[in-house]
Each structure stands twice: as C-alpha cells, then as structure tokens.
C-alpha cells in the first residue's frame, strides 16, 4: 500500500476517534485534574473567583475527621462481603443454567430480570414492602417460622438489608459467567469422566480454574462499583438524596456526595474523592498483581 | 449397572429443577409483591395476598406529582443519549477495529482504562465546569457526553467489527469509498443486532439514572427516576408518603425498561456474551 494511503488512513482514524478523544479530554481528563486542583483550595461553591490555596489541609481533614475514614472502613468491609457474595450468586446461577434443563431460557430471563429494574423502583419496593417495620413481608415470613421481628432499617440490620437489596440484582452477572462456562471445551469433562472424576472434582479441578479469568474480571468491576455506592444507602433510610443515612450504612461516597451537595464543601469533597480514587487504583493494582497466583492463563509466561 | 448409574443422575436432576424453581421464586416474589401492594388501600400494611384492586392508585401516581413532565424529561434525556452514544461509539469502535494508525493501541488502552475511573470523581468537577459555562439545568451535557461515546460500547462494537472479513471493505475501498462511508453504509447496517443491543442498554442506563440529573438539573427538568427519589407521593399538608402509590409510580417507571428488555432480549444476551463483559 502506498504511503499516501497510509497517511489517509491515519487521518481517517484520528478523525473518527476525535469525538471520543475531544470529549474524553474536556469532560474526563480536565475535570479529573481540575478536581485535583480544587482539592488544594478553599472552594466552597461560591468563591470560584477568589480561591485561596490551603495546601494539604483538605486531605488532612479527610484523613483525621470523625466521618471520612470510619466511613471508608465501613465501605471496604461492606465491599468485602458484597462482592464475593454477588459473584458467588451469579456464578451459582450460571452453573444451574448451564445444565441444559428444560426451560433454561425462561429461568435465565427470570434470574436476569431484577437486575434491569430501575434502582429507585427496587429501593421503594424493598424499603416499603419487604423491610417495613410495620407489617413488612420479611418479618411476616420470619414470624411464620417462629422467629421474632427484626428492625431491618435500624442500626443492627441495615447493612444486611442493603446486602439483600443489592444482591437481588446479582443475576445481572450471569450472562458473562454463562458465556465463560459455555467456552469450556467439553473434552476436558469427557476425559475427566473417563478417569473416574465425580461432579465435585470436575467442578473444582476444571470449571473453577477455567472460570478464574471471568471471576477475576467480575470481582474487579464489583470492587470498583461497591466502593462507589451512595444512592442505595441514602434512599434506603432517607426520603431524598440529601438525607443522611444512619451510621452503619453511612458509606464513604455518601459522605463525599453529601458534603458537597448539602454542605457546599466542594474542596473537601474533591479531596475525599481523590483519596477514594487512589484507594480504588491501589486495590485494582493489588488485585492485578495477585492475578498470577489465582487466575488461570493458557499462556505460561 | 443401569440401575446404579441412573439413580444419582435422576436425584441430580430433581435437585437441579428444585434449585431453579426456588431461585425463580426468590427473584420473582418481590416483583409480585410490588404489583399486589401497588393496588392496596392507602397507608395499609404490606400484604402478600391482595385485599382489593385499587387500580386508581396508578391514576394517582400520574397525577399527584408532575408525572408526565418528568416522563417527558426522561424521554428527552434518553433519546439524546441513545442516539448520540450509539452512533459515536460505533464509529470510534470501527476506527479501533479496522484502521491502522500510530498510537492506536495506546489510545485503545486509554479507552479501556477509563472504565475503571470512578464516575463521581469526574462528575463533581464537571458540575463546577458546567456551572461556569452556564450549562447547568440544560440537556446539553447529555448531548456532549453522548457524542463522546462510551468506553463500554466502543469496546463492544470494536469486538464485533474485528470479526468481519476484510473483503467486505476492500471492495468498497477500491471503489473509492471513504472510511466514514464504509462504516456508515456497510458496517453499521450489518451490525443491526448489536446496534439494537447498544441502544437498549444505553436506554436502560439513562432512563434509570437518578444521581446524574440530580446533580446537573433543577426540579423542573428532573427525569422520572430522579423525581421519584426526590419527591414523595403525599397528601396535601401531610408528610407521610403513600407507599402504595410510590410503588405504583416505581412500576410505571420500570415498564419501558422491561418492555425494551423483552423486545431485545435475544440480542442483548448474545451481545453481552460476545463482548464478555458488562459495564
């Protein structure tokens, strides 16, 4: 191919990716750095023309005040339970669907359906009908088994309620797991059967290792998502987005979001969000680095 | 031999169907409860079995708040997002899949890595920027985000376009077609199932978004999802939310999402499976 053709192709390439590139730079990269800049100032929403540099003051506050770090610990703890639980449920459901049972298509639709229901609809449904302390259905069911009622949205149970709410939609992950399961060559199972392996051994020595790349990806995305939760905890106990949730579900992003939109503490909020960004980056790197110890790869390097 | 081998297999099957049925029950029961309770009397205690059938709750759900205005806002925002994001992501995905250029791989890594940046870290400074540009309380931000495409869909299109045989575009190149026309006249039409998937998923994302519009818009321009989370269904002068009507409103919000899901279900499941990921 001629040099001219190559140049034309390069120009076409850059022209065609330019909408993405321009918007990425102006509405992602610039805001990202602008946010970093604001986190070193005293910006409070009205003094944009009169900013003063405060050095690391906002970061010091984030690291030492009574809200941010306890909220971060709480969020990490919640993610530590929520992410494996959600992945395990999706994996289990995909395993069930991968058996050529009659009506698999219908079951797949049923498992997937809750994940597409608007979050706000799910919250209203769980809060008002299932978790309601006045005749809520979950308590009715507990009472049926002779177990006393539980204050689902109170201090002790709110994190559990949040877990239930979030994992009702765990079926959203089944499609990826199903694709992964269907990608496993049947020869592996056949030769294992000839060697006399039982179902459990096949699961543990074939399915699980071959599914680790999918599990890895899902876990990573799950962690990134879980650390950013703020809407569900706020609306689970509050009536609108500026209502402060009770302490056990007062998560890190709830804090950052409400400090900004309720307290006009923009620079503090930006510092808090950058701390979160670094934490997420750090965790992602750790997960990536540990990948070689537990994620199966066809290419040995 | 047959006797000894058959029994565990059959027990396994019974267990399989029991599990499938129990999980179906767990996932469907809350939806059933939502429908039943949306029809009960105001302020009544939640119930499993329907007492009454107050269809008027749905009428009140659309009249007690400015329901149709919020719905119109939802439609405006979703239409802007769906059209711009689909076409732009497709074009960028095409360029990454079919065109060679220096710096392409590095740029593609950049696209992928943006999927890992927490949305809220850029959303808040963007709010400050839009404030200075007087773009707050307008629908322009959704247009701008849309023409920038979305990393997930760029990736999805790219994965599909790389599998298309090269002969298809070579003939067009010889005829002197520009790369944009090849994308527009050849690649886009043959990827209709993927376009449909992208459109439906983008629609779900923007229709369900609560917090984005909350940050950038004022109440008058709230879409329905945001309105339902900020404005409760209350009687005049009361500050107790009527749960039954809230649920009715929530279900009305879910209808377009559920309908489009069922329309495009086959494409969606295949689309996500080929990409291997979901954002």
Task: Describe the structure concisely for a colleague.
Chain A is an all-alpha fold. Chain A is 69% helix and 0% strand. Chain B is mainly alpha-helical and 279 residues long.
Description:
The complex is a heterodimer of chains A (301) and B (279). Chain A has 301 residues and is an all-alpha fold. Chain A is built from 13 helices and no strands. Chain A has helices at 3-38, 57-64, 68-97, 104-116, 119-130, 137-144, 158-167, 174-182, 186-194, 199-226, 231-237, 252-261, 266-294. Chain B has 13 helices and no strands. Chain B is 73% helix and 0% strand. At the A-B interface, helix 1, helix 3, helix 4, helix 5 and helix 8 of A face helix 1, helix 3, helix 4, helix 5 and helix 6 of B.
Number of helices of chain A: 13
- What structural class should be given to the helix and strand makeup of chain A? mainly alpha
Coarse morphology of chain B: globular
Taking Cα atoms only, what radius of gyration of chain A do you get, to the nearest Å?
24 Å
Beginning-to-end CA distance, first to last residue of chain A: 35 Å
Number of helices in the DSSP assignment of chain B: 13
* Strand content range of chain A: under 5%
Flag low-confidence runs of chain A.
none
Q: SSE string of chain A, helix = H, strand = E?
A: HHHHHHHHHHHHH
């Amino acid at each position: 191919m001629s040099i001219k053709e190559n140049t034309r192709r390069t120009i076409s390439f850059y022209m065609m990716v330019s909408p993405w590139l321009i918007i990425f730079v102006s509405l992602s990269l610039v805001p990202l750095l602008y946010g970093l800049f604001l986190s070193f100032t005293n910006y409070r929403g009205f003094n944009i023309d009169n900013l003063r540099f405060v050095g690391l003051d906002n970061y010091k506050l984030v690291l030492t005040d009574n809200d941010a770090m306890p909220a971060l610990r709480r969020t990490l703890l919640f993610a530590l339970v929520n992410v494996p639980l959600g992945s395990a449920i999706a994996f289990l459901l995909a395993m069930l669907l991968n058996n050529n049972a009659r009506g698999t298509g219908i079951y797949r639709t049923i498992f997937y359906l809750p994940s597409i229901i608007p979050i706000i609809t799910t919250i209203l449904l769980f809060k008002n009908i299932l978790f309601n302390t006045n005749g809520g259905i979950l308590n009715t069911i507990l009472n049926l088994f002779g177990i006393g009622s539980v204050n689902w949205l109170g201090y002790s149970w709110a994190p559990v309620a949040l877990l239930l709410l979030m994992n009702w939609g765990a079926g959203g992950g089944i499609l990826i797991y199903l694709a992964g399961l269907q990608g496993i060559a049947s020869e592996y199972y056949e030769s294992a059967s000839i060697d006399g392996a039982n179902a459990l051994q096949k699961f543990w020595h074939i399915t699980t290792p071959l599914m680790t790349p999918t599990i890895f990806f899902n876990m990573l995305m799950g962690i990134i998502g879980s650390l950013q939760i703020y809407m569900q905890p706020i609306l689970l106990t509050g009536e609108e987005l500026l209502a402060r949730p009770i302490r056990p579900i007062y998560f890190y992003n709830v804090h950052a979001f409400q400090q900004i939109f309720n307290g006009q503490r923009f620079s503090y909020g930006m510092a808090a969000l950058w701390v979160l960004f670094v934490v997420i980056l750090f965790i992602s790197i750790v997960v990536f680095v540990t990948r070689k110890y537990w994620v199966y790869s066809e290419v040995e390097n | 031999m047959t006797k000894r081998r058959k029994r565990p297999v059959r027990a396994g099957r019974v267990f399989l169907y029991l599990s499938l049925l129990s999980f179906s029950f767990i996932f469907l029961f809350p939806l059933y409860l939502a429908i039943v309770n949306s029809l009960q009397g105001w302020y009544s205690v939640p119930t499993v079995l329907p007492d009454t059938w107050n269809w008027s709750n749905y009428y009140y759900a659309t009249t007690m708040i400015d329901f149709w205005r919020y719905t119109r806002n939802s439609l405006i925002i979703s239409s802007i997002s769906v059209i711009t994001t689909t076409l732009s992501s497709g074009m960028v995905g095409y360029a990454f899949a079919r065109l060679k250029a220096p710096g392409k791989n590095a740029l593609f890594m950049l696209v992928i890595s943006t999927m890992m940046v927490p949305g809220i870290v850029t959303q808040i400074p963007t709010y400050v920027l839009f404030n200075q540009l007087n773009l707050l309380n307008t629908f322009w931000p959704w247009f701008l985000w849309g023409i920038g495409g979305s990393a997930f869909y760029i990736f999805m299109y790219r994965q599909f376009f790389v599998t298309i045989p090269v002969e298809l575009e070579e003939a067009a190149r010889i005829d002197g077609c520009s790369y944009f026309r090849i994308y527009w006249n050849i690649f886009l039409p043959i990827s209709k199932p993927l376009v449909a998937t992208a459109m439906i998923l983008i629609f779900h994302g923007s229709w369900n978004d609560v917090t984005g519009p909350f940050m950038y818009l004022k109440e008058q321009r709230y879409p329905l999802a945001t309105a339902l989370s900020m404005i409760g269904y209350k009687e005049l002068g009361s500050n107790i939310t009527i749960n039954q009507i809230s649920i009715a409103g929530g279900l009305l919000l879910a209808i377009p999402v559920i309908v489009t899901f069922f329309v495009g279900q086959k494409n969606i499941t295949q689309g996500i499976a080929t990409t291997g990921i979901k954002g």
